[in-house]
Amino acid sequence: MNALYRFGISLEKSLLDAFDRVIKTENYQNRSEALRDLIREKLLQKKWIEGGAVAGAIVMTYDHHKRELVNKMLDIQHDYHDTILSTQHVHLDHNHCLEVIAVRGKARDVERLSNSLKSQVGVKHVSLSISATGEESR
Ligand code: NI
After folding, report:
1. Is the CB of residue 68 less than 8 Å from the CB of residue 82?
2. 41 alpha carbon to ligand 1 midpoint, in Å?
3. At the fourth CATH level, which superfamily is domain 53-133?
4. 16 CA to centre of ligand 1 in angstroms
5. Mean pLDDT by 10-residue block, N- to C-terminus, for the chain (138 residues)?
6. What is residue 134's predicted lDDT score, i.e. its pLDDT?
7. How far away, in angstroms, is 63 Cα from ligand 1 center?
8. Which pLDDT belongs to residue 138?
9. Does pTM top 0.70 for this prediction?
């Protein structure tokens, strides 16, 4: 269990007021919790830029009638078997499929995987959502 540390912050009243307004709309209970999230977000950004480990999800919709698309997507996913944790497939309607791919690995591998899927003909939309692996000190 990590020990909690307290530290003081000096900032302009207008900046603090603006911050308080924002965190109120996001339902934070207090400034500490909001600041912790900001710091985590900053560390995650840095990790992304430096190519560290991230966890996340790729959400995509595609037309499974497109020739060869399903096979091509399987090939791509097998190429990234070290990065992919699980894949959930949903048949949205007669033509369209939704796939949620949980990933964990190097930021650049996750991004490459997402871009390879996005560039396939028949893929309607791909979004990549990135989170931390939980190991903040690394
Ligand atoms: Ni389907």
Report:
1. no
2. 34
3. ACT-like. Chain A, domain 2 (3.30.70.1150)
4. 49
5. 87 94 92 91 81 92 90 95 97 95 94 92 93 70
6. 76
7. 8
8. 47
9. yes
Q: How far is the CA of 84 from the centre of ligand 1 (A)?
A: 19
Look-up: residue for tokens 């603090």?
16
Ligand 1 centroid to residue 74 C-alpha, Å: 13
| Residue 1: per-residue pLDDT | 64
How is residue 54 written in tokens?
């991230």
Phi-psi region of 97 (alpha: psi -120 to 50; beta: other; left: phi over 0): beta
87 Cα–ligand 1 center, Å = 12
Q: In what order do the strands lie in the sheet with 53-63?
A: 84-91, 96-106, 53-63, 123-131
CA distance 108 to 80: 12
